[in-house]
Amino acid sequence: MNEDMAKLLEAIRNRELPMWSFRHHSHVLADYLIEKLQTKIPVFQWNDIVPVLVFRASLVFLHSIAMKLPNSPIGFVGLRRDERTAIAEKYYSNLPKFRESSIIVISDPMLGTAGTLTQTYEESAAKYAADTGKQIDKSRIYYVGFLAAESGYQKALKLIPPENIILLAVDPELDANFYIVPGLGAFGDRYFGN
Known about the structure:
This protein has 194 residues and is an alpha/beta fold. Helix content is 37%, strand content 23%. The chain has a six-stranded mixed beta sheet with strand order 3-2-1-4-6-8. A three-stranded parallel beta sheet has the order 5-7-9. A two-stranded antiparallel ribbon has the order 10-11.
């Protein structure tokens, strides 16, 4: 991560940052992360990229994806986390038809317990298998996010190759409420103002 992006990440970690500034910095960081994704995938395969956004926090990536990958269909999975258990329950799924050549990119700003990632991965892999009649090769799945907790990152490595995980930082731990420490708070709440 370059120095400018490191400064923006440090800025959004400040819980007192005004919402407009949090949103602006987050969009710049999302652009940067999608550009990092593009450097890992050959240009001739960009039309095979199928982003899967996890409601609602991952909507921060939507504009960057629409501008930088204008021919990509976009899938959505809605998961609501139980604040006591940190287990997410699915309430929505709308994934496009996958082709054998599809490259699935799961986008979610925060990777805490990896529960949401695991569910989204399983949902996407099952749809890929139903659409193509084949199991997806793990090398065709990517994750793009802002921050991870070390424990969540280690769980993610069981699903996705390390070179396919694009993050700004990995923080040391989760607190008793399953939030990343030091983290930046509840991304969706800060971005949407509730």
